[in-house]
Amino acid sequence: MRKILFSVLLICSILNLTYAQDDEEEVGSSELKVTATIGNPSGIINNGFIELSVKGGVPPYTYAWSDQNTSLKSNRAENLVEGINYDVLITDANQNSFTGTYRVPVESITEHFNGFFKPIVDKMGVVLFSDPFAALGFYDPVIYSKRTQVAPISWEATTAVSYSLKKWLVSDENHITKGQEIAVVALSNGSEEIIKASASGNLKHLLAEGEVIFNPNNAEHLIAQGSQYFAEIEFDEPVALRYPNGTLKRSGVPFIVVWLILGAVFFTLRMGFINIRGFKHAIALARGKYDNPDAPGTITHFQALATAVSATVGLGNIAGVAVAVSLGGAGATFWMIVAGILGMSTKFVECTLGVKYRHITKDGRVFGGPMNYLRYGLEKRNLKGLGKFLAGFFAVLAIGASFGGGNMFQANQSYEILSGQFPALVGHGFTFGVVIALLVGVVIIGGIRSIAKVTGKVVPFMAVIYIIVSLIVIGVNIHNIGPAISAIIDGAFSPDALKGGFIGVLIVGFQRAAFSNEAGVGSAAIAHSTVKTNHPPSEGFVALLEPFIDTVVVCTLTALVLIFTGMHEVQGLGGVQLTSDAFASVISWFPYVLAVAVFLFAFSTMISWSYYGMRAWTYLFGKSKRSELFYKLLFLVFIVVGASVSLGAVLDFSDMMILAMSFPNIIGLYILSKEVRGDLREYLKKLNAGELFKKQRENKKKME
């Protein structure tokens, strides 16, 4: 393993040395002479810079950087990834141009890894997030705007100042030019602001003189999106929106979202809306009404559910939802719930198959999940070659995902969050990682029984904590319920939604739900395959509760906390910080409770994903206990690494592996769906006839 790691680092070093630029160099054409100053202030990733000095030609110069976040007017690009190429096209007033390529040199191992994986992540992103409809020419993905909105200059979502419209300087429906003074706004602190037009076009008044624009004490103003706007400017022609570097903004339907949602819709219809009609029976199974301790398997229905939920309920439910609501607005909440309900059907199908095709050894160990039903289920349909390929491909992706998204990301983010609340932890990432590794090791060394016992206690505890705290925040702001519901419904269905239109809001909501509950990814089928049952569909019923808990309950609560407190309108903060500030707006010490909840979320996710990765590992490298132990030790090492260093693109790569798991899995689910539907019909027929769970019914009668 050390030889392989050394070889990878050596190759990365050679590649970086081959393309690295000197710290300062002068190149140019006959007209423009350009001197580049390249810097890497530290060994921390993504903090490189390139600064250009131009001589010759006729100013002003424009700088078209390949980095989307660098302005056309800026000669300096910052926060750059070390070890990769950046291009810039410099043009002067006479259209003389110069093209240069520069690279920030790497100085640390983490920068080597980050720079090595960044191009890979970008290429994977092209596949996962490409828009198939735009590629086929169904529509133009470029984002155009017909109008822009006008707000007070100093307005921020967290402002404590009220704004009123004092005077219009231009009449309604008049044509204005960019930079023209159009209104005077009065602030409650006694100051005034002269508002100038940001573009040319027709001015439309939204308020009359003397009316209040924004009052932070008004619930409707605080929650409703766009309440800070008092005018609109309708462009003479639709304007294509651009990034700071001048490239066009595009809004499409990511292929991975289409893949997951279409699968969920298909399975919902194929199984006759099992997500709705099977909910009551699922609750009864999870409560243990039909548990059979003598059935084959190792853990109960509830423990299997808790293990699977612990793997999905994590930082994505807090940080990810905050980002989604910030980007897509309150309306994204509605579509997130819809996607969660649809995903319940996908979970039913994959977890039914996980139990049906599992293998139990003589010593009681269970080997199940997508690797089994992809290989042996497809083999039954004379698709042996395809089945072996899909199973192997899935296993490789699952191992990578377990080390990254299910391990290093959790350790890294939980350390960042806890150190933010408890300053004593700052600078002690390695020690934190060792402690977490020891805690995780104590649990996972004992296998699935030990994992199930811990998750069976931790998951309900952390869920109750988070739900109670969320309900307190919502309860304190219950007077905002009217504006909140209005913001969610209007934002979900309004074709002029401020956050990207109807399609844009829908996609943001669907994407967050799909990424959070992992319906279609197949990971949960590994945990559910270990359940004690003689009837595979019974565990499918239990599994459909997972997206409901993860998305419909936990994700929705996070979104409601943000909306009820008005934090969904705040820009420029990270997801966890947004949620933390929303909690702190009610009780100052609530962020500490949130930090504890985040830690428990991360801890439970790690122990569950360790089992997922181990089963994928044993599928590829043998089912011996020695193989299992090697994987567990390797998993613990990655926890320490994750908590110790910033990994950037390495974690992005692993996250994409989680999403990529859905490709082989859903292909198999489509092929095997007819079989699952047949098993479901047979199960329901026997259940309704009283032929199932006879022993459990008899025991219940005796107890009565």
UniProtKB/TrEMBL annotation:
<keyword id="KW-0812">Transmembrane</keyword>
<feature type="transmembrane region" description="Helical">
    <location>
        <begin position="333"/>
        <end position="355"/>
    </location>
</feature>
<keyword id="KW-0472">Membrane</keyword>
<keyword id="KW-0769">Symport</keyword>
<dbReference type="InterPro" id="IPR025667">
    <property type="entry name" value="SprB_repeat"/>
</dbReference>
<feature type="transmembrane region" description="Helical">
    <location>
        <begin position="304"/>
        <end position="327"/>
    </location>
</feature>
<protein>
    <submittedName>
        <fullName>AGCS family alanine or glycine:cation symporter</fullName>
    </submittedName>
</protein>
<comment type="similarity">
    <text>Belongs to the alanine or glycine:cation symporter (AGCS) (TC 2.A.25) family.</text>
</comment>
<feature type="transmembrane region" description="Helical">
    <location>
        <begin position="548"/>
        <end position="567"/>
    </location>
</feature>
<keyword id="KW-0813">Transport</keyword>
<feature type="signal peptide">
    <location>
        <begin position="1"/>
        <end position="20"/>
    </location>
</feature>
<keyword id="KW-0732">Signal</keyword>
<dbReference type="InterPro" id="IPR001463">
    <property type="entry name" value="Na/Ala_symport"/>
</dbReference>
<feature type="transmembrane region" description="Helical">
    <location>
        <begin position="629"/>
        <end position="650"/>
    </location>
</feature>
<dbReference type="GO" id="GO:0005283">
    <property type="term" value="F:amino acid:sodium symporter activity"/>
</dbReference>
<dbReference type="Pfam" id="PF13573">
    <property type="entry name" value="SprB"/>
</dbReference>
<feature type="transmembrane region" description="Helical">
    <location>
        <begin position="252"/>
        <end position="273"/>
    </location>
</feature>
<keyword id="KW-1133">Transmembrane helix</keyword>
<dbReference type="GO" id="GO:0005886">
    <property type="term" value="C:plasma membrane"/>
</dbReference>
<feature type="transmembrane region" description="Helical">
    <location>
        <begin position="425"/>
        <end position="446"/>
    </location>
</feature>
<feature type="transmembrane region" description="Helical">
    <location>
        <begin position="587"/>
        <end position="609"/>
    </location>
</feature>
<dbReference type="Pfam" id="PF01235">
    <property type="entry name" value="Na_Ala_symp"/>
</dbReference>
<feature type="transmembrane region" description="Helical">
    <location>
        <begin position="656"/>
        <end position="673"/>
    </location>
</feature>
<keyword id="KW-1003">Cell membrane</keyword>
<feature type="transmembrane region" description="Helical">
    <location>
        <begin position="484"/>
        <end position="508"/>
    </location>
</feature>
<feature type="transmembrane region" description="Helical">
    <location>
        <begin position="385"/>
        <end position="405"/>
    </location>
</feature>
<feature type="transmembrane region" description="Helical">
    <location>
        <begin position="458"/>
        <end position="478"/>
    </location>
</feature>
